[in-house]
Model the fold of this input.
Amino acid sequence: MNKDNISALLTAVGVVALIVGFAIYFNNPGLNKSSLGNSNGQVMTSDGNSENSISNVKLSIDKSQFRKAPEFKGITSYINTNQTKLSDLNGKVVLVDFWTYSCINCIRTLPYLVDWNQKYSDKGLVIVGVHSPEFEFEKNIDNVKQAVARFGIKYPVLLDNDHETWNAFQNSYWPRKYLVDSDGFIRYDHIGEGGYAETENAIKSLLAERSNQQGLEISNLNQTKLNVPGAPSVDFNQIKTPELYFGYQFARAQLGNIQGFNPEKTVNYTIPRSNLEPNVIYLQGLWKNNPDSMELVGSNGKIMLAYSAKSINIVAGGKGEATVKEDGKDNQTNNTIKGNDVDAEGRLPVDGQRLYNIADHTNYGNHQIEIAARGPGFKVYTFTFG
Done:
């Protein structure tokens, strides 16, 4: 062979080797690490490319590296649906949302879920809310039904009271969203709040992929509306106080009272006269220490907290009512910091076991809340912040 022929042959061999190498890499799950979603929340195909628009959807995707979504297990009750299996939804794109109704992080995501259900349910999307409770009272179907109605949820909600579906998905967080494609593979996974635009793009990509596979016509998938009505804006970098639990079983920090937690005992708590330590709960009065809550046993009790955030909520229930003071002022109608669940007289009527917004400021900052509770049976579970 002359020099030109040898060069041509070597070039051809090199090209073939390169093609074979890429083929092995992109079809080997052990080498190609792309799986659920990348750091930008985009749906990933088996060739490592992200799908941002319907024009990029692949007609043929090797899904061997993706995990099959497990079946719903141990469901105790159903809301907005009859008995539902994930296998019954084969051929649809399914958004599985793990939530619980008194969780503020879950509540803030619900306007987006309601919006997606309205926009995409007729295009092949099915949202399934898997309600996996944190507290015992969240297992009560009547409580969950009231919450579903209050939040305007029309999609199916499954009560996972024993966390069997939670465990089947190997989940550890509220909220958490899994997107399951029309073949039953988990293609996207988002933990916590935020990432709404990325999640919606993932929904649209999988709906477009489904339409191509099934030969369907689908339109208006490139319209993403980010200004969802009722969706709050939260700057987590400015919230300096973590969620605080009242139950000794869940508490991550000790009480500010010298008496501390006393499991299953009733304790007469007193608040020290010195300045309150930030981000620490203080109690006054006769309270029973329950695993998940503090329960007022005496006729009057007080809760005080110095915190740093823009808004503050409590999860409460039982009997009685409370009066709320913020920074030494009654939270009445003419007070701009009054919470949504505080009435015109600055009182907090407890009408069920749920989350109550008790103060809402214009800006983030340091504040002190005082809750004067009245009536034996008043229970408080947690403080949360926004």
Residues 317 and 353 are 4 Å apart (CA to CA).
